[in-house]
Amino acid sequence: MHRSQERINSEMHQCNADLTGRILAITYSGFVGPKEVRQCLETVRGLAGTVAPGFILFTDSIHLEKMDLVCAPVLGEIMEECTKMGVGAVERSQRGQPLTYDFRVIREKGVATSSD
User: Fold this and answer.
1) 68, 54, 113: which is closest to 102 by C-alpha?
2) Given pLDDT bands bounded at 50, 70 and 90, which one contains residue 62?
């Protein structure tokens, strides 16, 4: 991941946007409740002016132990915000299915990778 434009860290979540505005990454881990998901939503809203249309959204929940069911509507709001911001592709990982970045998509979007 590139250096972060903005980062919110906690034991439960991280939300990062790279300096190029082409990548937004959201990571959930441990036990996540509505407070943490709301914080993430506010961070995503705050990043609206820094991500470029067509950005790639990476979501990672490999280390997520549990998320309260009441978080579902807020997760939907996060996705709506990403849609408004012009998300171009979504890559995700979840427990038992490690994230495999599709570097073709990343290169097509013009994001430099370590192998470039």
Assistant:
1) 113
2) confident
